[in-house]
Amino acid sequence: MRLSKYSSTFSRIASSAGAVALLSLLSGCLIDFGGPQSTLDPAGPVARRQIALFYVTCWVCLFIFVVVGSVLAYAMFKFRAKDAADEKKIGPDHAHGNPMVEISLIAASVFALVIIAVPTLREIYYSFEVPLESKADSYEVTATGYQWWFKFDYPAETAQTLDPTGKTVNAAFSVANELVIPAGRPVHINLRTVDVIHSFWIPKLAGKVDMMPNRANHLWVEADKPGYFWGQCAEFCGESHAVMRFRVIALGPREFNDWVNSQMLPARKVAALADGAPAGAAHFADYRTFTRNEAGYTTKYDENPLDAWRAQQKAPASGEDPALIDKGRKLFASKTCSSCHTIRGEGYIGVVGPELTHVGSRSTIAAGLLENNRDELHRWIHAPNEVKPGNTMWMKGYVANEIKLTPEDEDALVNYLSSLK
Ligand code: CUA
Questions:
Q1: 122 C-alpha to center of ligand 1: Å?
Q2: Which atom of ligand 1 is found nearest the CA of 236?
Q3: CATH number at residue 318
Q4: Atom 1 of ligand 1, residue of closest alpha carbon
Q5: Atom of ligand 1 nearest to the CA of 241
Q6: Which of 82, 214, 323, 419 has the most Cβ atoms closer than 10 angstroms to its Cβ?
Q7: Domain assignment of residue 421, given as a range
């Protein structure tokens, strides 16, 4: 084969590869880097230091690419066949290596590695633990991975509180799939798992760290200002790994304090309506049906997710049906939901599934997959296996306990769970 043929094939490949690279660069400029799971749009000090490190590596690699690519291009043109006699030769004359060239190449490689290694080691130390000077101000939470959802505990909040009847009750609470943190403060997150290896990742706040069985990992994050962030399990952990998501809500100091106090309260009870109010049966809802893989959220959280989350915290001013809600409350126990879920103030103390004391105030359900509204709640209760294949509520609840729900039961449960603000 002729060398010139090689070089023309080579340059064709090189030019098309160049075109692809240029296209992706151009589209990169057009693509919105601020998507909800973008690591290129950091919102806190840890993520910012990590993206800076990414760019160091990126520039060093780009420099090496340009140097090696230029030498390769030069060699291709310099040594291409010039006449018929040249074409018979297999390549340039063989020569022994030049010691100076070889030593300089080794030195350059070591230098490139050092440029990457120094900031890498520095950032590993930085992201490992809250810096000493801000340690006193840091807040602690514990995140636990389950197949396939996250539980968040607040070990700092263990006070006792009075329930509405004046009885002293334990106010320790946990939240599923929505980690609420104070903004502008370092947050130390203990990482645990009850089953397999998961990986905890909030792309805009920090890199991922694994949740390992029998190993106490941790990481720390800080949000610059109040905001609503997306999180994702980043380690394959079984059938529904891809839909094991969560949200992080960062709040200012006063709002965070109010939120903690609201979580400490036992479950909300909807008071009976005044005489003449409509009875339960009249409220039977006509829920929409979903196709199997239909996306579970609307555009409601696109514009201003934090305000949409705040709106979700409030109990509706009207439209609740106490009789129907009470029916749902009783069904929750009779259909054995209460053996897996905790609802404080009702005596339900199950720990297999998420605590639901304030489930109505969360912005998402089913591990950050579905927006928390009546239709999606109904979709989840009606056929959880279609939303999150293989999940425990379906396999060990619905199937094992032969739970059957009539449309009226589902409606009552949706109304009850939505009322738990
Ligand atoms: Cu948990 Cu993937």
A1: 29
A2: 2
A3: 1.10.760.10
A4: 198
A5: 2
A6: 419
A7: 267-421
Assigned domain for 286 exists: yes
pLDDT at position 4 is 46
* 107 falls within a domain: yes
From the CA of 197, give the closest atom in ligand 1: 1
Query: Who has greater pLDDT, 309 or 276?
Result: 309
Give the residues surrounding ligand 1 with Cβ less than 6 Å away: 145, 148, 198, 233, 235-237, 241, 244
How many Cβ atoms sit within 10 Å of the Cβ of residue 199?
22
Give the residue from 265, 297, 324 where a domain finishes.
265
Between 271 and 138, residue with greater pLDDT: 138
The arithmetic mean of pLDDT across residues 226-251, rounded, is: 96
| 205: in domain | yes
Q: Find, among 247, 233, 200, the residue nearest to 370 by Cα.
A: 247
Nearest C-alpha neighbor of 380 from the set 315, 290, 305, 301: 290
pTM for the full predicted model? 0.84
Kindly give the number of the ligand 1 atom that is closest to the alpha carbon of 235. 2
CA-based nearest residue to 176, from 401, 403, 392: 392
Residues 232 and 279 in one domain: no
Whole-number Cα distances in Å, 360 to 61, 245, 315: 49, 18, 9
Domain at 211, CATH number: 2.60.40.420
What 3-state class would DSSP assign to 131?
A: coil
Omega of the bond leading into 148 within 30 degrees of 0 (cis): yes
Please indicate, yes or no, if residue 256 is contained in any of the structural domains: yes
Residue 186 and residue 60 share a domain = no
Task: State the Cα angle at 57 between 104 and 221, rounded to 5°.
Answer: 150
Q: Are residues 95 and 241 both part of a single domain?
A: no
Ligand 1 center from residue 355 Cα (angstroms): 20
Section 53-60 average pLDDT: 94
- Closest residue by Cα to residue 313 from 376, 265, 350: 265
**Shared domain check, 389 and 313:** yes
List of residues 6+ apart from 189 with CB closer than 8 A: 140, 141, 142, 143, 179, 200, 218, 219, 220, 221
Domain boundary among 80, 101, 128: 128
231 with 260, same domain: the answer is yes
